[in-house]
Design a protein that fits this description.
There is one protein chain. By secondary structure, the protein is of the alpha/beta class. About 30% of the residues lie in helices and about 25% in strands. Helix 3 (about 90-95) packs parallel to helix 4.
């Protein structure tokens, strides 16, 4: 039984991600909350309750319409759908859900195509939700058509892992009967020798079919995407931890925005303890 949060800006990308999430997890015992967050216009005081009330009304109407369209897109599925409309920027709104008694186990978000590129650009909003929301996040590139995962590429950064961090991955792999391909990217920053024994994932994944692989590459995401393409994988999984090599993928600054590109769904898990 899972509670899944579906942030929406009412776009086609958000609808595609919500549709993907419902098909991936199914409806039996699961609850989906469609979330829209809104902000007051720049220069408007927060005390202007009339503007805030109008925006809240429009946001709720848009969310209700989104839910109706989601239901109509999957007419054979009886979806347990809730709605949430809150004032605030999305990363902070998502983070507030961590205090709920029935807090989500996962956030599913659509990603938007970068202009002039075939890759899908992971936007700063999604990156901020990954860094600050405290939840696993599944990003779904635009125009992705749902396929039951058969091969899932898991990026191994060599750090410690606890089973709780992998639970969503374990659940998905079990019910989809997917094979997990554990991949270590070798470059000048790594010291492990290919073929070195590593029982961490073997202990955590139990009976889930799995194999270990090593690929060379200086750009981690390009190496993972290349391996995923060659393996005909349906999903890429990375573990987000502070000070890891993957932290760089979500870092932004005033001078440079380091964007991550992926063209298949990517699940970002949160390592709770190093």
């Amino acid at each position: 039984m899972a509670h899944i949060l579906l942030p929406t800006d009412f776009s086609a990308n958000a609808m595609n991600a919500a549709n993907y999430a419902v098909q991936l997890f199914g409806v039996e015992g699961n609850t989906f909350t469609v979330l829209n967050s809104y902000m007051l216009p720049h220069g408007a005081a927060s005390s202007m309750w009339s503007i805030d009330g109008l925006l809240a009304k429009e946001a709720q109407e848009g969310t209700d319409d989104f839910v109706a369209r989601l239901r109509s897109s999957l007419p054979s599925m009886k979806i347990d759908l809730r709605t949430a409309v809150e004032h605030g920027d999305l990363p902070n709104v998502v983070a507030r859900f961590s205090h709920d008694a029935d807090k989500p186990q996962l956030v599913v978000m659509g990603t938007q195509g970068a202009s002039g590129l075939k890759e899908v650009l992971l936007g700063s909003n999604t990156a901020d939700v990954i860094k600050g929301g405290g939840f696993p996040v599944l990003t779904v590139p635009e125009n992705t058509k749902y396929e039951t995962p058969k091969r899932i590429v898991v990026a191994d950064d060599g750090g410690p892992i606890d089973k709780g961090s992998l639970q969503i991955l374990i659940d998905i792999a079990r019910w989809s009967k997917a094979e997990v391909l554990i991949v270590r990217v070798i470059n000048e920053d790594t010291t492990v020798e290919p073929g070195a024994p590593d029982a961490r994932f073997d202990e955590l994944l139990g009976a889930i079919p799995r194999s270990h692989h090593y690929v060379s590459g200086e750009n981690v995401m390009q190496a993972l995407n290349g391996f995923a393409d060659q393996s005909d994988a349906n999903m890429v999984v990375v573990l987000h931890r502070k000070r890891s090599i993957f932290e760089q993928l979500f870092h932004t600054s005033t001078a440079t925005k380091l964007a991550m590109h992926t063209h298949i769904p990517m699940l970002v898990l949160q390592q709770q303890a190093d």
